[in-house]
Amino acid sequence: MVQGSGRRNVLQCHYHAWTYDLDGRLISAPRSEREEGFSTSDFCLQPVRVDSFGPFVFANVSTDTPSLSECLGEMPARMLADGLDFSALVAVERSEWVVEANWKIVVENFDECYHCPVAHPSFSRLMAVDPVSYALESGRWWSRASTPLRIWPEGHAADLPYDPTGPCNAGQFGFLWPNFTLVQNPGPDNAMALYFVPVAPERTLVISEYLFGPDASPEVIRDMVDFNVLVGAEDQRLVESVQRGLSSNRVPQGRLLLDSERLIAHFHRLVAEALSAAA
Question: Deepest in the core among 111, 125, 131, 209, taking most CB within 10 A?
Answer without folding.
Answer: 111
